[in-house]
Design goal:
The chain is an alpha/beta fold and 556 residues long. Helices cover 53% and strands 10% of the residues. The protein contains 24 helices and 12 strands.
Length: 556
Amino acid sequence: MAKNDNLELAVQGLIMELGVALTAQHGTRSRRFNGPSPTVPQDADLEDRLLALVMTDPIARQQIGLKEKGQDDAERRLRLRTMAVLACRLLREPVRSHVDMAEMAVAVLDTHQNPGAALLSARHGIGQMAVDGLLRVVPAGPYLWNVGLMPLGKAVQWLAGGKSSLGVLTPQRLAARKSDPEDQSDIAAPTPLPAKTIRNRLAERVVGLDGQLDIVSGRLALHMERARLLAAGKETGTPNECVLVLGESGTGKSWLCQQAGWATGLPHAACNAAEMSATGYVGLSADDGLRELINAAKGRTETARYGIMTYDEITKRAGSMNESPVNSTAVFNELLRIVQGQLTQVGGKRSSSYEPVFWLDTRGTFFFLSGHAPGLDRLIERRQGRKTIGFGSGGPKKGNRGLLLDALEDFGLTPELLNRLTAVLAIPPPRLGDLIRAATAENGVIAGYNRLLIPGGCRLRFEATAVQELAARCISSRLYYRGLASVVSSLAADAIMDGGRSVTVKATDIQRAVERLDEAANDLLANARLTQTDLTSGSIVDGITDGLSMAKDRCV
């Protein structure tokens, strides 16, 4: 920067000076520091002057956790020393992501007390800062009591010189600065929207799901209000929203989840659960989806915390025939940890490659779990005909929701994960009218491809009979909404190849486009059969036999 007029250095500079003094006094310097050993300042009343200055600054009091009433002088000084040591260790010395709690307690203890009592008092005070939400506790060793401490992201930014400071620089922050230099404030939580407003927005882009939109809109409205309370530091006493969306391929499950992010203005990301593995070393882990959510929030973890995360194809993981149930259960348990909400490490778990590390608190994240569960209806019928035993013997029958959850458990989902569901949506196959609306709406499939064609002088104009034929073909092929995009994209490609002109699409054009798609699929199948025939043909087998004989002769 050319000038430092907007940097906040008065209080922060003294905090750094106090941290250097405490670090040197207690011998807690980093081994990686190659410069001369810092010395304790001669100004003995540095801590007194700094404490008096902080008490007059409301922002400084909030970041350090000092109160004008209800705190004694010893507690204020302990919190001030703790933030000072954190500032020194995290901003002055290289390769530091946290400070060990035992190391911190030694650095900030009151030297006027008995050493043992002072150490225990310091640990208690530091723990209280973590309880009050001023510090973040992370694992730092093989034992439960080996923990590290780090301040929250906003506190680190403040310690580095305020919002205008680039002293805490990450690739995401740099990208956000370059793309939007006018807005550098961290968005803590979105402004809650009424459920009807969210529903009206969703209805603009999602057709044929009136009842499902009511449920999703209500859940999103609750989620946004919960986010507001959490951002204000208030506990809601309610779990995260976790909605299971079931439906055939092409019925619009992923589209609904994606549009939920658009309607609310929240960051949204999706992860294929079928590719997740128990260890995460081969395939994806549950944490990898959260990395995509952080990217959607432009690297801001506080914004990503209140976003929408979709784990797609969750039922493929449940009904996988290629892996043991133990592996699938391990994946679901890992996902359960994230869904129920906790501080989660994202990245840095694979030793084979460099991954930047983020810490994301998933308390306040909205989760969609989506997929297709073929044969679920038969499992429900089987559950309906099963006699209850044990505590349920002779009691009232379970409702439809209970039967559905039991059938999903039979399908392969774990009961612990099912108990976290706040709603279950069934997406039916679209009807003919739904597909026609999706094709011809203002933001529909045809309009979308025309936006790509118009700059080149092209345009697709569909006759009414052509739209009817298109919708009927998509229903008969069971491709539904994905079928609309496939056929219209094929027609759009033909229009561009014809030299860029407006094309009137008739019913016969739809039939030819579908036939071309079928012919391409038939060619692929024919090539696959030809390859299989070649591998089993006599000439190839003879060649392999001759090669083995030659190798044997050479060995002899």
